[in-house]
Amino acid sequence: MSTPGSAPTATVDSMFYAVDHFHKRNFEKCAAICTELLAKNPYDKAAWTLKMRSLTSQLSVDDLEAEEEGIADSVLDTNTIATAARPGTSLKTAANVVENLCRILTILF
To answer: What domain range is 35 assigned to?
Structure first.
């Protein structure tokens, strides 16, 4: 085992230090320790998972710029709701057409 001030020597100690760095939000050091562990054993699922989590936690996406809407975008918005129905799509007229069709069919038959 390693002493508290020295570098980790055993795999368990290295994994412990990697998890400790992850909890302290020192993601770069955590990923570096996981990379060392994976160099020794590339099939270590715990090291892969911790490295993936530390690398994804490093990313910070700036959504402020993506959400900003300019004046031109708000004025020229094409997603508006029409106030009047399109011709031939009114339910009222469709009911009248069906009613008239039923009258014609009863007269013919």
So the answer is: 14-61
d(CA 88, CA 93): 7
- pTM of model > 0.70: no
How many domains is the chain built from? 1
Task: Choose among 20, 88, 102, 87: nearest CA to 34.
Answer: 20
Amino acid sitting at position 48? W
Residue 35 lies in a domain: yes
C-alpha 77/C-alpha 69 separation (Å) is 11
DSSP conformation class of 87? T
Report the alpha-carbon angle 77-81-82, nearest 5.
115
Q: Which residues contact 47 (CB under 8 A, 6 or more apart)?
A: 15, 18, 34, 37, 38, 41
Q: Is the pLDDT of residue 36 over 70?
A: yes
